[in-house]
Amino acid sequence: MNPSSLGVGVNGNQFGNLSEVNVTTGAGAQDALSVVDAAIDDITNLRGDLGAFRQNTLNATANNLRATLENTVNAESVIRDTDFAEEIANFTQQQVLVQAGTAVLGNATQLPQLVLSLLG
């Protein structure tokens, strides 16, 4: 909406804007009042549309962002609350198992050589 188009076409008038209205006559003054009243109605309708947009779109977006922030904070809390002692114990246990497996494989490759040296 353009400010110069507010109130144009009221009561069938052909005014492009208020500067075209001759307010020195009673009819012209009445036309000017009609144009101003229509402009006020146009502005009121536009304000209503903007308010509805704000209510429906911007508030919904703000609520979604709040929920996202809350979920992110909760996820960070879960990460920070990890039981590091338990996780280090699990890691150490896995390391011991890997080292034991490596040692068993090493012994398994040496066993045939030992048998051959005893027979030989």
From TrEMBL:
GO terms for molecular function: structural molecule activity. InterPro entries: Flagellin (IPR001492), Flagellin_C (IPR046358), Flagellin_C_sub2 (IPR042187). The keyword Cell membrane does not apply. GO terms for cellular component: bacterial-type flagellum. Pfam families: Flagellin_C. Gene3D superfamilies: f41 fragment of flagellin, N-terminal domain, Flagellar export chaperone, C-terminal domain. Residues 34-119 form the Flagellin C-terminal domain. Keywords: Bacterial flagellum, Cell projection, Cilium, Flagellum. It is found in: Bacterial flagellum. It comes from the Bacteria. Belongs to the bacterial flagellin family. This is A-type flagellin.
